[in-house]
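User: quick one, sequence for these tokens?
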């Protein structure tokens, strides 16, 4: 019985170290929808998803720490810094053009 409890405790601790990154992606104040979203935290924790029709996305990371989020829009990879914590963290972005006319992710 102690072995079962020990294994359960290890599993719970492993899950507790995971981080959730979620948010919305907007373009021209409207949900982007259908964009590939990739988050990378550390060398071995990379997750990807597609935002839904409301522009929402959710990624469960293997670990916590600093990293990047990359959104593919109009053939371009737009990247911004993120930090994954043991609790859920929200990153909402607007896709906007910078001074050079290129699309960038701007946190809102």
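Assistant:
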């Amino acid at each position: 019985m102690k072995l079962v409890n020990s294994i359960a405790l290890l599993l719970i601790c492993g899950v507790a170290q995971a981080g959730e990154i979620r948010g919305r992606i907007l373009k021209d104040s409207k949900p982007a929808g259908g964009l590939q979203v990739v988050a990378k935290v550390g060398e071995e924790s990379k997750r990807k998803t597609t935002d839904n029709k409301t522009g929402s996305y959710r990624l469960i990371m293997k670990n916590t720490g600093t990293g990047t989020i990359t959104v593919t829009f109009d053939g371009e990879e737009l990247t911004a810094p993120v930090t994954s914590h043991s609790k859920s963290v929200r990153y909402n972005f607007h896709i906007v053009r910078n001074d050079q006319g290129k699309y960038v992710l701007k946190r809102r």
